[in-house]
Design goal:
Purine nucleoside phosphorylase DeoD-type; EC 2.4.2.1; single chain; Rossmann fold; 9 strands; about 230 residues; uridine phosphorylase activity; globular; Nucleoside_phosphorylase_sf; five-stranded mixed barrel; 6 helices
Length: about 230
């Protein structure tokens, strides 16, 4: 396998399942904290990627960047060029629904979006990006065994962090959107098109309407639950 313009890995360097946080330094943290026999397979653009073992299972972890164009590139290459079967996004999100609280773990069963990412498929209608049910079920069951609360439902993958429409999140809240992030819809679409599997697990780090937010230290400690759920189902 010739490395891609964005990934310096060779054929066989990457496991069948990849955990994908947005931040490459979080990928490094996961590799150093949880994996054994770790090898770094990518440093291109500092989008760090690592492969190791977790409880005897071979697992990779790699940053995906911010936004759908970024995760769209990395997940496409993993699915199509590196024979990856499963990508589990683990990231932060802003709560939208009234009953979503800081530190809640939200699993994106579906990913609504304001993005035009699906236009490339030239479909005769509106595509609904959804998670792989097998991965979703395993994540919920694993969380239950660990006594970790999860909320499963529809999330929003937004192209805009700073939205000129100040009413946008209120409109999405009316449709029972749980939380907003910026990557899941593109990941789910790439997985569908490739015939592969994807799941998005999120930790609520702030709330759009209450203004509450976690400190950097709190994020580090809280995100461990999400990381461990993903590792267990990898």
């Amino acid at each position: 396998m010739i490395p891609t313009p964005h990934n310096g890995a060779k054929s066989g360097d990457i496991a069948k399942t990849v955990l994908m946080p947005g931040d490459p330094l979080r990928a490094k943290f996961i590799a150093e904290t949880y994996l054994e026999d770790v090898v770094c397979f990518n440093t291109v653009r500092n989008m760090l990627g690592f492969t190791g073992t977790y409880k005897g299972k071979r697992v990779s972890v790699m940053g995906g960047g911010m936004g759908m164009p970024s995760i769209g590139i990395y997940s496409y290459e993993l699915y199509h060029f590196y024979d990856v079967d499963n990508i589990i996004r683990i990231g932060s999100a802003g709560g939208i629904a009234d009953d979503i609280k800081l530190r809640d773990i939200v699993i994106g069963m579906g990913a609504s979006t304001n993005s035009n990412f699906a236009a490339q498929y030239q479909l005769p209608g509106t595509f609904a990006p959804i998670a792989d049910f097998g991965l979703l079920r395993k994540a919920v069951e694993t969380a239950e065994k660990k006594n970790i609360k999860t909320v499963v439902g529809n999330i929003l993958s937004s192209d805009t962090f700073y939205d000129d429409n100040s009413n946008a999140n209120s409109l999405w809240r009316k449709m029972n959107i749980l939380a907003v992030e910026m990557e899941a819809a593109a990941l789910y679409m790439n997985a569908a098109r490739a015939g592969k599997k994807a799941l998005c697990i999120l930790t609520i780090s702030d709330h759009v309407f209450t203004g509450e937010s976690l400190s950097a230290e709190d994020r580090q400690l809280t995100f461990r639950d999400m990381m461990e759920i993903a590792l267990e189902i990898a």
